Amino acid sequence: MSIENYQRARQLIENAGSGFFEGPKPESLVAKAEKALGLLFPPSYRRFLLEMGCGSIKGLEVLGLINDDFEKSTVPDGIWLTLTERRQISLDRAYVLIGEGGDGTYYAIDTRHVSCNGESPIVRLSVDGRESEMVAASFGDYFLEAVRRRVI
Q1: Across-strand partners of 124?
Q2: Taking the mean position of all CA atoms in its chain, how far away is CA 9?
Q3: pTM of the model
Q4: In degrees rounded to 5, what are phi and psi of residue 35?
Q5: Backbone torsions φ then ψ of 68, nearest 5 degrees
Q6: pLDDT values of the chain reduced to their tens digit, one per residue, 152 residues
Q7: Rounded CA gap, 148 and 132, in Å?
């Protein structure tokens, strides 16, 4: 259901007529981001990157891709932020940061766990990145629920 939930979230955003998203990113850039992080993105997050890049809607900021400068960027570049947090707090290399919790915590894809359809759960990380709590079974599920809270 993850890809379907991602599509539902996109439809809600289109119907709401609001939000700002960076826009589609080429496959080569997504592959470069995976290489920079040393992991593969789950299908629903990969589709988000390819179709939307990164962006925000009504206070929800979804981290993703801006360009290929992963060393000198800023939020909402999730690749840059993930690499930065790896250096600053020794963030586990299996995490991909996709959102901020507003209190110093982050939402992240936990690529250590992969379902039969290739999806990975979304967790909320503690400020130091050492503790996690699962919040959704996949990026698509997380994205749909977060968008629903903003636009419905």
Answers
A1: 107, 133
A2: 14
A3: 0.96
A4: -65, -45
A5: -95, 10
A6: 799 999 999 999 999 887 899 999 999 999 999 999 999 999 999 999 999 999 999 999 999 999 999 999 999 999 999 999 999 999 999 999 999 998 999 999 999 999 999 999 999 999 999 999 999 999 999 999 999 999 87
A7: 23
Altogether, the residues listed in the chain come to a count of 152
> Can you tell me the distance from the alpha carbon of 116 to that of 124, in angstroms, rounded to the nearest whole number?
22
Q: Where are the beta strands (DSSP E) in 14-139?
A: 20-21, 55-57, 60-62, 95-100, 106-110, 122-125, 132-136
127 strand-pairing partners: none
The Cα 118–Cα 113 span in angstroms is: 9
Query: Helix, strand, or coil here: 129?
Result: coil
Q: Which strands, in side-by-side order, build the sheet including 55-57?
A: 20-21, 55-57, 60-62
For residue 74 the two structure tokens come to 């800023």
Give the Cα separation of 114 and 86 in Å (integer): 21
Integer Cα distance of 47 and 3 in angstroms: 8
Query: Which residue type does 48 have?
Result: F
